[in-house]
């Protein structure tokens, strides 16, 4: 047992494996935020006037807002003036061949298949390095299908009419503190447009990287699926090791028109901070999907293992009749990580359905909170919701919390919620160990079983990655 | 919070603080009033008040007292309960009525006194209870209660005393010339190994729109046990705010049944602290609402001791344009290893205009814990209805039968049987009459 302890200790102390900083000159705006910074940012990105105005509107409203305090999170006050709001690699590459080899090397370390490997994996990768998209693959194949998949800055320049129509229509500029901040200073992100009747020929994917220190990253993603279209989108991320808390406030908007289907999967593995809670990413994300058309469907799947602080509630507005919303989540907190995450399902249309599966795992001194709202409006006849929320505790000092809200105004609706909290029992461990598994493997197996329901919803490559991630993240949790 | 001009706050400010002539008590009351005035009424940004807006209440003013409360003719039948005799205290519009109460022949080990009398006879032992900030955290209604409550009940059960016959505390709202504000403060303490059955009964005589604010504190010493039935059948127009704080020491046990039927705006905040190791709380409750009723139950259970257990089963039925709110929050604090917490809340929504908001919450800070909660909102099972109708039951009878069965779980365990049947009948009287398609 003593030897095992030291092994565990080593594992426990192992540094974050994706933690490295690529040394590239970045063209960075000085820290601070005011209207000039927004003008400069907008100008650098060669945005049209309406976009600049849109940002300014958001900024002016943001000034009147205060950071939300209702979440069960312990956050040191954030100095928004100490952050630089723009960082882009200096040489803008025209093609993949021109991409800085150092950048490609970074992706290599992370295992992002950008060239051949991408094709083999059948994944189109729109890799975002800090704030500007540097390489986009599979453009042609997608273009043939009529799918637009590009960076947000490109979309603003080349498809302004679509962007103008949908940007901010799901998450308005004034939605909340972090969404307003994002609207004012968003750097880049992905834009996906699937035209009427098109089934996107491949799974789309973006890898995010936060690279330059002091730079908040403000991603803005917009996915629009027209009538009968369908798309599966993957988002995954790792970040290099940093001592300062880096702020990340992303906004993701999904629009599903009639019979459209959007599946959005996330694996989040940003730097969680060290054992003492130093460093780590602050992750404040507003994700929302709007099932605008009848028979549309939006499904969120997330595996959250990283970030020092996670504040994230991917939601569905079920406006269209018979529309369907889904939320599948695994959130893991270890050391001093804090996560307050969940979803909102707003039922407006008739015969709408939603399903929520949330699995929270807390280890070390981690604090894991599920916070969810299921709201059935008067108009949502025959609406149906089922919520399942399970928490697993590993260790004496962690916390697992569940705060579901249910508001029902229609008598034909059925809403169900169930939640359990438990620990890995000694009997379970003993059973596994008596079958020859060591403790670490036994825990990993039990955790895997606990999360299976969610992993099943992930695309294959992600499912493998997610399982691995949990194993790595839980190293040293028992012992 | 800028409620300073609101009629409600004004009418409370205008009410003279009850003068006791006891220095420390007057000071405590003054301080509590200041706390109320500076805080105003809670608004819906406060999580505990999220679904209960007090805008309508804020616009009403209340008379500070009912001058003829002590002389009103009261028919004892209005608050009679079957098979329940013996010791009782009766308050009419907040005023203690010795003529209606029965305090002679107290069983051995039971001491019962109206608070007003205790304050006159021997106030010193109450100093600790009344001057400290007993109910922490104190909200506006608790402050208001501390400032204005001049009466209530003081119950003490001697160690090891087993009080078999139930003790009743009746708060009767009687029709009066104006809407009255009543405040009462109750203290119940059970000594080591003591056992008590208690019935809190909120009854109505005629139509009225009084405001009643009651704070109860229960302390259960080691191995004490209390069986509590809280039967709330206030007038349709009444506003009733109750707060009950329970402190359970080692091996203490609480068994609670709550039935919420009346009131236009009724709120009951139950705070159960399982402080001692192996203390247990079992709560059962139901509300049946109709018309424009708004009933809010806040059940806050805190596990502090080791191997503590709580088991809660609550049912709700809302019809008409009623709104039912339930918040069941279980907190397992660090060190409360071995806690076992279960909560189930099921609701029936019977009409288009009704609304149910439920919020079961779990906050777990300890390992070695078993905790689970479940909540549903739905309607009667069509198949069950069809089955009953195929057996020849009229639609309405079938519905009522199913709703009764739905609520029955909350009443099981109420003793004696006649009382349980009475509760069932009261519930039945509150169920929708013509909901047949």
Question: Which features does this protein show?
Answer:
heterodimer, A: 479 residues, alpha/beta, 10-stranded mixed β-sheet, 6-stranded parallel β-barrel, 12 helices, 26% helix, 34% strand, B: 437 residues, 9-stranded mixed β-sheet, 37% strand, globular
| Mean pLDDT across residues of chain A | 81
- Unreliable spans of chain A are 1-5, 113-124, 128-135, 208-215
**Strand arrangement across the biggest beta sheet of chain B:** 2-1-5-7-9-11-13-15-17-19
- Low-pLDDT regions of chain B: none
Count of helical regions of chain A: 12
Average pLDDT of chain B: 90
Shape designation of chain A: globular
**Beta-strand fraction estimate of chain B:** 35-45%
Multimeric state of these chains? heterodimer
Biggest sheet of chain A, strands in spatial order? 4-3-7-9-12-14-17-20-22-24
Using a beta-carbon cutoff below 8 angstroms, give the protein chain pair with the largest interface and the number of residues from each chain: A-B, 35 and 34 residues
**Considering DSSP H and I runs of 4 or more, what fraction of the residues of chain B is helical?**
10-25%
> Biggest β-sheet of chain A, characterized?
10 strands, mixed
Question: What structural class do helix, strand and pairing data of chain B support?
Answer: alpha/beta
* Helical content class of chain A: 25-40%
Shape of chain B: globular
Topology:
The complex is a heterodimer of chains A (479) and B (437).
Chain A (H helix, E strand, L loop, with lengths): L1 H12 L12 E3 L6 H10 L4 H15 L23 E3 L11 H10 L5 H6 L1 E7 L2 E5 L2 H7 L2 E4 H7 L1 H7 L10 H9 L4 E5 L8 E7 L10 E6 L4 E9 L7 E3 L2 E6 L4 E9 L11 E11 L5 E8 L4 E4 L2 E4 L5 E10 L4 E4 L2 E4 L5 E11 L3 E10 L7 E11 L4 E10 L5 E10 L2 H9 L4 H17 L4 H14 L6
Chain B lengths: L6 H8 L8 H17 L15 H4 L29 E5 L2 E2 L13 E5 H7 L5 H5 L8 H9 L2 E7 L9 E8 L6 E10 L4 E11 L5 E10 L4 E8 L6 E10 L4 E8 L4 E10 L5 E10 L4 E10 L5 E10 L4 E10 L7 E10 L5 E10 L5 E9 L3 H9 L4 H17 L5 H14 L7
Parallel strand pairs in B: 1-5, 4-6, 5-7, 6-8, 7-9, 8-10, 9-11, 10-12, 11-13, 12-14, 13-15, 14-16, 15-17, 16-18, 17-19
Antiparallel strand pairs in B: 1-2, 3-4
Helix pairs in contact in B: 2-6, 7-8, 8-9
């Amino acid at each position: 047992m003593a030897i095992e302890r030291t092994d565990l200790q080593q594992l426990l102390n192992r540094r974050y494996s994706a933690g490295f900083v690529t040394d590239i000159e970045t063209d960075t705006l000085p820290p601070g935020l005011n209207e000039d910074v927004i003008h400069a940012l907008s100008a650098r990105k060669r945005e049209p006037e309406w976009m600049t105005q849109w940002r300014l509107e958001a900024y002016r409203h943001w000034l009147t807002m205060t950071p939300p305090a209702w979440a069960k999170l312990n956050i040191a006050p954030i100095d928004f003036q100490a952050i630089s709001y723009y960082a882009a690699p200096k040489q803008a590459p025209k093609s993949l061949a021109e991409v800085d080899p150092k950048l490609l090397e970074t992706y290599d370390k992370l295992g992002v298949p950008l060239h051949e490997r991408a094709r083999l994996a059948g994944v189109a990768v729109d890799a975002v390095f800090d704030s500007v998209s540097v390489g986009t693959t599979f453009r042609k194949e997608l273009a043939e299908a009529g799918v637009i998949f590009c960076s947000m800055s490109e979309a603003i320049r080349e498809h302004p009419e679509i962007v103008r129509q949908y940007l901010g229509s799901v998450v308005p500029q004034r939605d909340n503190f972090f969404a307003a901040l994002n609207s004012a200073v968003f750097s880049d992100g992905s834009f996906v447009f699937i035209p009427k009747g098109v089934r996107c020929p491949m799974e789309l994917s973006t890898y995010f990287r936060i690279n330059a220190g002091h730079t908040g990253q403000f991603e803005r993603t917009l996915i629009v699926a027209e009538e009968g279209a369908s798309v599966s989108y993957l988002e995954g991320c790792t970040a290099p090791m940093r001592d300062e808390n880096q702020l990340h406030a992303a906004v993701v908007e999904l629009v599903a028109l009639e019979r459209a289907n959007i599946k959005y999967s996330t694996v989040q593995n940003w730097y969680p901070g060290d054992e003492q809670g130093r460093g780590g990413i602050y992750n404040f994300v507003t994700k929302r999907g709007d099932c605008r058309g009848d028979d549309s469907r939006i499904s969120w799947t997330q595996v959250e293992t990283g970030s020092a602080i996670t504040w994230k509630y991917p939601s569905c507005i079920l406006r269209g009749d018979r529309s369907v919303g889904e939320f599948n989540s695994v959130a893991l907190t270890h050391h001093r990580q804090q996560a307050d995450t969940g979803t909102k399902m707003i039922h407006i249309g008739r015969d709408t359905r939603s399903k929520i599966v949330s699995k929270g795992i807390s280890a070390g001194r981690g604090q894991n909170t599920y916070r969810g709202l299921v709201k059935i409006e008067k108009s949502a006849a025959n609406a149906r919701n089922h919520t399942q929320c399970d928490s697993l505790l590993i260790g004496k000092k962690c916390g697992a919390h569940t705060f579901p809200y249910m508001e029902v105004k229609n008598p034909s609706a059925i809403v169900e919620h169930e939640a359990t909290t438990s620990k890995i029992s000694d009997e379970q461990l003993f059973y596994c160990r008596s079958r020859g598994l060591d403790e670490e493997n036994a825990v990993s197996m039990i955790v895997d079983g606990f999360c299976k329901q969610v992993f099943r919803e992930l695309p294959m490559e992600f499912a493998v990655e997610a399982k691995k991630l949990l194993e790595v993240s839980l190293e040293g949790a028992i012992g | 919070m800028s409620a300073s001009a609101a009629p409600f706050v004004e009418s409370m400010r205008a009410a003279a603080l009850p003068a006791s002539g006891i220095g420390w008590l007057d000071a405590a009351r003054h301080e509590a009033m200041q706390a109320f005035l500076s805080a105003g009424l809670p608004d819906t940004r406060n999580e505990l008040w999220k679904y209960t807006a007090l805008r309508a209440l804020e616009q009403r003013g209340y008379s500070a007292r009912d001058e003829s409360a002590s002389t009103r003719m009261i028919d004892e039948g209005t608050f009679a309960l079957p098979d329940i005799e013996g010791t009782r205290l009766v308050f009419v519009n907040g005023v203690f009525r010795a003529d209606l109460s029965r305090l002679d022949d107290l069983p051995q080990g039971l001491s019962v006194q109206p608070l007003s009398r205790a304050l006159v006879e021997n106030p010193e032992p109450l100093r600790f209870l009344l001057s400290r900030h007993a109910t922490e955290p104190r909200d506006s209604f608790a402050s208001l209660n501390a400032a204005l409550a001049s009466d209530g009940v003081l119950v003490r059960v001697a160690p090891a005393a087993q009080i078999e016959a139930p003790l009743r505390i009746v708060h009767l709202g009687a029709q009066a010339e104006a809407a009255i504000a009543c405040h009462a403060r109750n203290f119940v303490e059970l000594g080591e190994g003591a056992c008590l059955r208690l019935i809190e009964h909120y009854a109505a005589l005629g139509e009225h729109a009084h405001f009643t604010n009651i704070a109860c504190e229960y302390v259960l010493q080691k191995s004490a046990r209390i069986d509590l039935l809280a039967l709330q059948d206030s007038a349709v127009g009444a506003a009733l705010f109750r707060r009950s704080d329970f402190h359970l020491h080692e091996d203490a046990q609480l068994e609670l049944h709550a039935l919420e039927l009346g009131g236009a705006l009724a709120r009951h905040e139950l705070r159960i602290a399982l402080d001692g190791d192996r203390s247990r709380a079992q709560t059962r409750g139901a509300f049946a609402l109709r018309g424009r009723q708004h009933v809010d139950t806040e059940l806050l259970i805190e596990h502090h001791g080791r191997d503590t257990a709580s088991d809660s089963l609550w049912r709700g039925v809302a019809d008409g344009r009623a709104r039912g709110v339930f918040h069941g929050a279980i907190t397992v604090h660090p060190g409360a290893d071995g806690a076992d917490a279960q909560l189930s809340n099921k609701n029936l929504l019977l009409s288009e205009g009704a609304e149910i908001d439920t919020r079961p919450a779990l906050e777990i800070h300890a390992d070695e814990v078993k905790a689970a909660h479940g909540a549903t909102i739905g309607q009667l099972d069509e198949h069950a209805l069809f089955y009953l109708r195929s057996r020849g039951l009229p639609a309405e009878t079938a519905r009522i039968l199913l709703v009764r069965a739905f609520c029955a779980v909350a009443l099981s365990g109420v003793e004696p049987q006649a009382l349980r049947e009475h509760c069932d009948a009261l519930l039945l009287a509150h169920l929708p009459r013509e909901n047949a398609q």
